[in-house]
Amino acid sequence: MSNHPEVPVVPVGAHEPPYYVAVFTTVRTQEQSGYSETNARMEDLAKDVPGYLGMDHAQTPGGLGITVSYFRDADALTRWRTDVEHRAAQERGRAEWYQSYTLHVAKVERSTGFTRAEVPQAGA
């Protein structure tokens, strides 16, 4: 999982369905050499895929990581899945970084969102 403290924590917004999500859930090994750099590169690479809508990350203190990637259509998801650099990162992940993982791909049929309006502080 990437660690971007300078970026506000905001989930990817709701999009007009249908679109696709890839939910990648991991437990990592102790060996993480090169992981952060590769993960950052994969995020940058995904952004260049036509039809990419965004990516959310979460990591529990116990080590469970979840990345959800959003794509406008199945073709965009296929372009991401078959990208040569992404495929190489997948192989390295299986060889070094992941104890286990699951990948779930789904077509989103409903999407809503909520953002609390900022309330001014007293005396501000």
UniProtKB/TrEMBL annotation:
Protein name according to UniProt: Antibiotic biosynthesis monooxygenase family protein
Annotated InterPro entries: ABM_dom, Dimeric_a/b-barrel, Jasmonate_Hydroxylase-like
Top-level EC class: oxidoreductase
This enzyme's EC code(s): 1.14.-.-
Residue ranges of domain ABM in the record: 19-92
Domain of life: Bacteria
Record Pfam families: ABM (PF03992)
One function term, GO molecular function aspect: monooxygenase activity
Keyword entries, A-Z: Monooxygenase, Oxidoreductase
